[in-house]
Structures are given as C-alpha cells and as structure tokens.
Amino acid sequence: MAEELKPSTFYTVYGEPLLDQSKQDALLYLYQPIIGSVAASLYLTLVSDITIEGKSPSLMHTDLLAAVDTGLMSLVKAREQLEGIGLLETYQKADDEIGMSMIYHLRSPLIPEKFFQDPLMAYLLMDKVGKHRYERLVERFKPKMFDKNEFKNITKRFRDVYRLDEKAFASHSESLEQTQEEFAEKTEFDWSLFTQQLRRFNLILSYEEREKLQTFQTLYGLNELDLAEYVAKATAGEKAGLNFNYLRQLINKEKRPKVTAKPKEVPVDDKTTASSFAPQEREIIAQSKKIAPVTFLRAIKREKGGFETNTEVRLLEELIGRNLLPKSVINIIINYILVIQNQAVINANYLNAIANDWAQKKINTPEAAITHVRENNQKLVRKPQTSRPSYQKRGTGRKEALPEHIKQPPKETKLTPEKEAELNRKLAEYLSKEGDD
C-alpha cells in the first residue's frame, strides 16, 4: 500500500483529543523504546490533529510529513510500527474524484500498570532497554503500597455521602437508558432489559460493576433474566455493593451455563465457507459464535473425560476482560490448545501468548483463526487417517508461530487418529445441542 500513498492523499484522524499523564508516560517511557522515536512522534502528531469532538478535519499528508519531519517511506514504516503494537488502526477508501483517502483510528496506550501485566509487552521493553533499565522502569511505575493493617479504613460509601431520590431517578430512566445505549458497544445481550430486571430488586450498579458484569456475561453466556437473578443473590446483605467472588461461585455451581436466549443465526452453508472448511470445522465455527467460552471449555473437557479447573475459568475471565478478541476467537483458541495440541489443561503463558499474537495480527473471526492456523501447517479439526498424517511426522511440522521467549506448553501427546475422529464427532454433536438450548 506504500506505493499508493502520496503526499497529496487526504486523511482524517479519530481518537482521544488528549492523553492523560499516565498514558503520556507510558508512550514516552514504555512504548517509545519498542516502536522508535519516529513512530512516537507520528502518534503524538496525529493526536494533536484531533479536535475536542474526537475527530480531525480532513488533512493532507504533506502537512503530516512536515510536522514529523520525515519522508514518505519512513512515515509508512512508523505507521506500521504503531499498527503492529496496537496503537493505530488504518483504513483506506478509493474515490473517483479525490482519489484514495485514509482514516487513522488512534488507540490509547496501555497505562503502565496494564503494560507490565502483559508479558509480551514487558518482554519487548526488556529486550530493547536491557534488564537494568527495565527494572528501573518497573520500580518507577509499580503501585506504591502502604501497610493497611496499621490503619482503619474510614472511607465513606456513596449512600453515606449522597442522597438519591429513587423516584426522581426512576422517572428519568428512559432517557438515561437511551444515553447508555448510545455509548455502549452493540452486543446480542439486551442491557436495557437487564437494567429493568434489576429494578425489581431495587439495585443500581456502578459503571465499574457493569464493566465487570460484561465480562461475566460474555464468559458464561447468561441471558438477561438469569444474570439479574444472580446479581440480586450476590448483592443481598452486602454493604459494599456487588460481591463478584460470590457471584462467580453462584454461577459455577451450575453444571451447564445457559446460552444467551435467541442467539442470532450464524450462516455456515454459504459457498465460500462450504468450500473452504470441512463439515466439522463449519460446525465448530458456527457454535463458537453462539456458545459462551466456559460452555465451550466444558464441552471439550467432558468429551475428553476431564473437567475444567477454576484456574482455567479465571484465565478465560481475564482474557475476555482485556477486550482484545471476540468470544468466538477465544473459543477457537480453547479448541486449538485442548484438541489440536491435546493439552490436558490450558497453560496461562501459552494462552496469553496465542491471544496476544492473534490480537496483534487482527484475527477477529473464527474463520480467520482457522486460516491462520492452517498457514502454520496446523489443522483445527483433524480428519480421520488410516496412517499417521505427514504433518505429524517428526521434524516436518511447525507449531503455532509464536515468539521463542514465550514458555511453550508441556510436550504434546498425540491422539490416535481413531480417538481424534471420535472426539471431533462427539464435540460437534455436543456443541450443536448446547447451541440449541
């Protein structure tokens, strides 16, 4: 695409018009050693283009080149460095009158606390600056703690300080819900219906509680009525609000978490999909879009004769909370680790490495995930073989292309072709039944 970009090409920038101090520090001290000074300068220049409304006017690359003080090829390289690290999304559009135009959608840097919680990002920084400076940066940004045992917590709660007129609040509910919908991400889950159900229990959730509940809803696939019931039970008798540990315990008591009511139909018989994927692959693609990750995990463990661990569920919860990948792609990762790699449990480092790698490669559909795995000489659903397939022979196959520094899972134990075929068949049948519940 570099040869298509010209100094006269128009562009528009979307994103936050201002970066708070923590994000500025992250860009300067943590991202810049990885992406380079030109890419950091490009990012800040694009930020400066954005108005208070979150959008820039239509501008020409001539001005951008002058502001960054670099050439066109260097600009494209810097832009790609921003894209690869997750700070920029680039879109282009062809127009008969003005030619090609570009849209740059800036993504906010991870704050230092989140940056160091990401093992891949932390390693990239250490690799660039060296262990000594890396440790200095960790010391600079790590949370400053104090011994709470010597003090009494006298922090006031919301209701201790502010009076809330319940009737007045309820009278504006329709307008407030409309505002909430305008700012919320569009999902199959009806948050307006969920909020209405909470009113039966006289419950009002904070923004932070609602954000956490979005993770729980995606993880377990609960419908609006069931989630409201669970929240009511987890809030009863609590002075500090919703008890998420108790909520997790309540949900995990269920043998089979329910799938969202009336899931959207997923077309799997179109010509492109039919010609590209085997029938069992098409079934898993369809169910990965409808079924919650915990249900998907339990289905695989059940057919393998095992069970999911609390650690695995928490790993999935943390991954979903990062909002990097849709649940369908997370389900494909689960299938890849447990079925294709034939691991007994999900390894934290391996799960995070794959998720990080796929997120940076912008793999956001199960079809793209399967195609990516195939390009690395892996098959997501193995077909029954009368003899050992060639890609399984010693020294001929390649595993998922991941950075060498990432700790790999325990040594792979191959299933027999007969066991693989039987597991795939049972899994497809089980998932199909789950999706119909």
E-strand count: 4
The quaternary organization reads as single chain
Structural class by helix and strand composition: mainly alpha
Low-pLDDT runs of 5+ residues are: 255-274, 377-412
Quote the distance from N terminus to C terminus: 46 Å
Major sheet: 4 strands, mixed
What's the helix count?
22
Strand order of the largest sheet: 2-1-4-3
Radius of gyration: 25 Å
What count of structural domains?
3
Order of helices and strands: EHHEHHEEHHHHHHHHHHHHHHHHHH
Structure write-up:
The two termini are 46 Å apart. By secondary structure, the protein is mainly alpha-helical. The chain has a four-stranded mixed sheet. Strand 3 and strand 4 (99-106) form a beta hairpin. The protein has helices spanning 21-35, 37-49, 61-68, 72-85, 112-117, 119-129, 131-141, 158-161, 166-171, 173-183, 191-199, 207-220, 224-235, 244-252, 271-276, 279-290, 293-303, 310-321, 327-340, 348-360, 366-375, 417-436; strands spanning 10-14, 59-60, 88-95, 99-106. The protein is globular and about 60 Å long.
Provide key terms for this protein.
437 residues; 3 domains; 55% helix; Arc Repressor Mutant, subunit A; mainly alpha; globular; four-stranded mixed beta sheet
